[in-house]
Each structure stands twice: as C-alpha cells, then as structure tokens.
Amino acid sequence: MNYSRFITQISQNRKPSLIRELYETLTNASPELVFMAGGMPNPQMFPFQAASITLKDGRALTLHPKLMNDCLQYGPTSGYPPLVKHLKTLTQKLHDPPRWADTELIVTSGSQDGLCKAIEMMIKPGDYFATQEPCYTGTLSILHPYSLRYVPVEGDREGMKPEALRAALAPWKPEAARDAVDDVPKVLYVNPNACNPTGVSLTEERRHEIYQIASDYNLIILEDDPYYFVQFGDIKDYPPSFLSMDTDGRVLRFDSLSKILSSGIRIGFVTGPKPLIQRILLHEQASVLHANSLSQVLVSELLTLWGEDGFFKHTQSVQEFYFQQRNAMVKAAEQHLTGLCEWAVPTGGMFLWLKVNNVPDTWDMILERALKKNVILLPGKAFMCDQSQPSTFMRAAFSLITPEQMNIGLQNLAELIREEMTLV
User: Fold this and answer.
1) How much is the mean pLDDT over the chain?
2) I need a labelling partner for 32 at 20 to 30 A (CA). Which of 68, 91, 223, 375 fits?
C-alpha cells in the first residue's frame, strides 16, 4: 500500500530524534561501549534501590537493583524490549496478522495516547472522518479540535451496519479514494468488541463486509479494542479482529491493559503497518519519549511470572467478574426501567446503553436534575458527532458498583425519568 495520503504534512515533517535513535543502539551494544551521547542520569543518584510487590495470590514480584535501574532509567521509544516481546507473542497468538513481516508494534502511554498520535498523523483540520455513532467520548475529544466533517455510521444490536457504511460513503466514488483524491474520507474508526458506549460487538460477517468496504474506499481502519478481554464467552469463540483479516495493510489496532491489569499503569500498544507505526514512534520521541518504564518492567515481569496460562487464567477471571456485573445490571434494569427505557444486553464491557422513551433529550435531566435523585450517568449527547442535536440515550456504567447499588441507582433513575416525562 501507498501510505502517503494517510500521513499529514505535520507528521511528514517529523524527524528522528538523534538522541533517541542513538539510545536504540544500546540494546545490542558492546559492553565495552563508552556511551557519551545521551544525558542519562546516573542510577547511583536514584533514591530507589529495589522493590517487592505482592500479588493477590500471595506471590511476590521482586525488582532487584538491575531491574530497578530499568524501571527508573530512560528506555527505548518503541517499548521495554522484554515487554515488546511478550506483546508481539500475544498478538501473533490471538490475531495471527497475515502481513506480520510488514507489521510493527509500539508501546504507548495507554491506548488512547496511541490513538491520539495516530489521528494527528492522519487527519488535518476540515477532513472527512468516518466513525461509528455513538462514538467513545475520548475519541471525540481528540477529534473535535480538528473541526472535522464527520461521516457518522449507525449501528444496531450487532454493531455497525455495513449497509449504513456504504450509504454514508455513497457521495464519493471508490476510484477517487484509490486515486488519492484529497477531499474524501481516509479513516474509519470502530470499537469492534463491547463497543463503548453501546456494549455490543460486531458479528464476524459484518467485520468481513466492513473490511471489504474499507478496501473498496481505501480507508485505514482504526481498530480501537480496549475491551477485547472483556467479551462474554469463550475466548476461542471471539470473532476475528480486523488485524487478523488485514491482507492489505490498512489496520491500525489499539490494545489496552487498563481493563485487565490496571488503568493507572497507563500501558497500551499499537500494532499496524511499519510505515504508520514509524510515524507514531517519531511523535512519541518528541512527546513522552517512551511509555512509563516502571509500568513496563512491572507488566513484563508479571507476564513472565504468570506465563501464557496464568495470563489467560487472569483474563478469564476478569471476564467472569464483569459478566456477573452485567447480569446484575440487566436484572435491575428489567425490574425498574421496563416500559421506561429500551436497551440491548451488552455482549461485553462495562456499560448499559439506555434509550429513554418519551424523553427527547437526556442532557438536562442528567446534568441538572439527576444528582438530586442520588444517581448520575452520562447523557447520550456526549457520544454524538453533532452534540448540538438532542439525544434520547444515556450510558450507565456497571463496573464499579455493587448489585445493591445498581438496584438503588436504577430505582432512583426510574423516578427521575417519570418526573421528566411530566415536564415534556
């Protein structure tokens, strides 16, 4: 693929950081090398010597002085090498990308950091941008300053509708995109699994159709998949990722460890075509230099201790926990919101997406009156490309609260909705 149309002038203008590039050479350098090129602080001046972290199963992760030095010192921009190796092995096992030889992976400060850098690489103000709607609010926060012309694509209980995507792209001819005409959409953003905010997942059939449409219109697919391991069901039955079917080299995949290990460690990773990952790496060199070293070493040591079986045992327990949370939330909704709201049962994730009957807009109801009822959600307008339009939807998170709190919260919400209906 020719990636020139997908790289903005700002991204093209980025040049490698000489210090960062020289630092990359240290990985395979001779022990006799006298390195006087970088301003690396002397580890003898670090106040931290070693650490031991206790896991929930009682085992300990010991960060001896050599590892502690790795935790506290500058590291390669692409990521801590042992962690990168773990993540590449995991990616090959789960997705088996057909163009693996042309694929690269970079560790980022959470998956949203990678997404932000990818968007800056590909989008300039006023561009067309195709996206699922509703769309994750964090993504919209990245996009809004670009004053984009959104191409929203609706979905249903099986995710984004391919026919809706074709209809949304109908104003443009596929050959215009293939000829790299500038004023056509270049990017398609999608949450394929346990979509935030709707909680639904794309069917395998739709994924293949959407990939074909992206190929027809020469779109890069931004596959934002932080809930991959929070799909409900056997991992062997998970539908294939877009990365796993990417024979063209048009998928940038964003993974996160926030939902399965810790949100505070801020570790994500981006996988995709080498020319695009290289542009993200240059941006990383100029911004954070690299993802947090302490977090990277800690995760790498944890994955080594667990092994593959231990990792999947843990992700299974995470999935089972949120599955029980989902069931309790749906049960509470059936008890308190039947007749007042409509919803699809989430196939994964942490959210219940509610459509409120007979209330044309939930914004004021939630932001001005919900607190008086001791309940708070996110109004649906926050997930829409055009936030000047009303929305009858709202998002309820079930990740943190207990089943008892779910009952109380949705009972309070039901009272709020009934009062709101009298005001309409």
Assistant:
1) 94
2) 68
Q: Cβ contacts of residue 145 below 8 Å, gap of 6+? A: none
CB atoms within 10 A of CB 352: 27
Residues of the domain holding 56: 4-306
Length of the chain equals 424
pLDDT of residue 46: 92
State how many domains the chain has.
Answer: 2
pLDDT at residue 27 in the model:
66
Rounded CA-CA distance 162/188 in Å is 12
Number of H helices, E strands in the chain: 13, 14
Q: DSSP letter string over 44-61?
A: GG-S---EEEE-TTS-EE
- The pLDDT, as a whole number, for residue 179 is 63
Strand ranges, E, within 46-205: 51-54, 60-63, 103-108, 128-133, 149-156, 159-160, 187-190
Statement: residue 183 has pLDDT above 90:
no
Distance CA 60, CA 349 (A): 29
Instruction: Give the span between the Cα atoms of 414 and 230, in whole angstroms.
Output: 28
**Is 312 a domain residue?**
no
What is the predicted pLDDT for the residue at 204?
97
Phi, psi of 195 (to 5 degrees): -50, 135
Element (H, E) at 136: none
DSSP state for residue 369 in the 8-state scheme: I
Pairwise CA distance, residues 202 & 210, whole Å: 10
CATH code at 403? Answer: 3.90.1150.10
Instruction: Tokens for 9, please give them.
Output: 């002038």
Angle at 70 between CA 64 and CA 72, to 5 degrees: 100
Q: Which of the listed residues 306, 333, 355 is the one where a domain comes to its end?
A: 306
Q: Which residues contact 407 (CB under 8 A, 6 or more apart)?
A: 332, 335, 336
- Kindly give the interhelix angle for 81-95 and 293-336, rounded to the nearest 10 degrees: 40
Same domain? 327 vs 302: no
Can you tell me the distance from the alpha carbon of 271 to that of 291, in angstroms, rounded to the nearest whole number? 15
Q: Is residue 143 located within the same domain as residue 248?
A: yes
For the chain, what percentages of helix, strand and coil (3-state, to nearest 5) are there? Answer: 45, 15, 35
Are 248 and 1 in contact by the 8 Å Cβ rule? The answer is: yes
| Tens digit of each residue's pLDDT (9 = 90 or more) over 92-104 | 999 999 999 999 9
**Do both 23 and 158 map to the same domain?**
yes
Asked if residue 369 and residue 253 are part of one domain, the reply reads no
In terms of domains, do 298 and 349 share one? no
